[in-house]
Amino acid sequence: MSWYLATPLVLPFLTAVLSFLMRFGVWGRWISVGGNALLLIAATLLMVEVLGAGVVAGQMGSWAAPFGITLVADYLSAVMVVITAITALAVSIYALADIDARKEHLGYHALFNVLIGGVIGAFLTGDLFNLYVWFEVMLISSFGLLVLGGSRAQIDGGVRYVVLNLISTILFLTSIGLLYGMTGTLNMADIARVLPSVENQPLVTVIAMMFMVAFGVKAAVFPLFFWLPAAYHTPAFSVSAVFAGLLTKVGVYALIRMFTLIFDHDVGFTHQILLWVAALTMITGVLGAAAQNDIRKILSFHIVSQIGYMIMGLALMTPLALVGAVFYLVHHIIVKANLFLIAGVVERTTGSTDLSKIGGLYRTAPLLAILFFVPAFSLAGFPPLSGFWAKYVLITAALETHGWIIAAVALLVGLLTIFSMTKIWAEAFWKHHPAGIDPKLTTLSPAERRALLLPIAALAGLTLIIGFFPQPFISFAETAAEQLLDPSAYLTAVLGGQA
Amino acid sequence: MEALLALTIGVLVATAVYLMLARNVLRFIFGLVLISNAANLTIFVAGRLTAGAPPLIPEGAKAPVGEVANALPQALVLTAIVIGFGLFAFALVLMFRAYTHLGTLYSDDMQVAEPRSTASTPSHLTKDTQMTERPAE
Fold this sequence. Notes:
Strand content of chain B: under 5%
Oligomer: heterodimer
Largest sheet of chain A: 2 strands, antiparallel
Mean pLDDT of chain B: 81
CATH topology of chain B: Helix Hairpins
GO cellular component, one term (chain A): plasma membrane
Shape of chain A: globular
Distance between the termini of chain B: 52 Å
Protein name (chain A): Multiple resistance and pH homeostasis protein D
Structural class of chain A: mainly alpha
Order of helices and strands of chain A: HHEEHHHHHHHHHHHHHHHHHHH
Radius of gyration of chain A: 22 Å
Mean pLDDT of chain A: 89
Shape of chain B: elongated
Pfam families (chain A): Proton_antipo_M
Number of strands of chain A: 2
Low-confidence stretches of chain B: 119-137
Structural class of chain B: mainly alpha
Subcellular location (chain A): Cell membrane; Membrane
GO molecular function (chain A): NADH dehydrogenase (ubiquinone) activity
Largest sheet of chain B: none
């Protein structure tokens, strides 16, 4: 059993060590691609196992549940691991052309794979302190990736990113300490079992709020998101793409896990706050994006506004809303990573990502235009692309609970997202290049073109598949939501008979 | 003993927050060190204090005899100290780089990644220098 759980966790670290040793040749980057391909296989195997068993749990070192460290995968964890592996593989192929030799010598591939390992660890662990450790693994490698290359803008963005994330980390650590003091255990399933019998329930709500703030910084929700647009447009495009796709989503995942499994004692209070947070996150994110004129800055603000939709699904806390949140997570990671990868190609062919300095891509690179069209308008929620179904489910869930305001906000933000995507489309693709250049994909070497466009096309294809055949994904998300709302299967899998 | 530690944690957090609110990023770093130690102490106290009873298992026995101190928070604090040290080292180097590359320690003056407007950015801040290049002394 634990073999399925441990492999996706061990593989990235193995890949990291090997690619670090081989970083001075061409082998390092291919080890990274190969390692991530194996990771995808391991993640798929885990998924198959979870589809069969419902929840898979393994005790590391064979220490029985509340004492040892538990790895556990339910439907949500399993799909997050698979989607992480897909993103990691796509970005590692893209990095073949995007990352120069100097960054490779500094250890780009090692840091990248450690980051992936940290993300997967956070998805699979069933132990709160272990979750903290995986967050740190993720954080320290993301620090390295962010400033790798050391341009002034990177250092500047890095300062904000590091400062705010360290504050969140300390808050997270303190909350773990307090929660441990109240329950005497760190195993998440065991905490969920013990917590209802704790005498001081108001203090539990206080700790819940501390966790909400700590994970809120990681997930970049209003009003804690300012580090994200300050930093995400500065590093290499591969790095931006993997950050945009995965890092904030780990925060969202942690929020969903904590506020369905552990802190579901005072839903009226905590989830009401989450609902306000969701609405304000959506609005500020999309308005921030409207004011920007650089592709990566626009996309960064859109990460913030999209996070709002996922939090909205969690805040409504109905089965349908959680279906929407899970579906949105999966759809969003693919689309967002892809848009940042496309921004990289735009920069390479036109020389900039500043919308006032570029243009002409529709005429000279129609393939890229189509590849941009799919994720961009999926993000905006055009039917029948994947984003439409995600928004449709969430807004239906909001209407079912008579949440008229949040439904209206979600619809309005969808409209404003179209505005931003149309802006990129009109400026980068339709208008003529202001300097009179004809940006062509053929300026890239054939090998570069393959490495850059293959992952973009694959992710766009995946968006189309989810869009045209949403039924299996929706019914998967339904089971995931059922497991989140009724954690008895999770508790039994982790704790055995005593739950 | 708990009261004394709680007071210590309170003083540490208060000092740390004061330092972290400063615009000088170096002060922020010092605040960070203090507050992470406050977090470590919090975990330690949350695990309940048992004075003078180290969690040692006598020879021949399979479990500690009598009431002993809780060893788990100590392990957690140890892990947190190690991680915190790594993060602190990184943050210190980053602030040093920020000082050498951006020429300032004041967060208000760091405007390369998010310029307020292109017109007001001082000309010496717009040129992109790589890490390999040393700024003129």
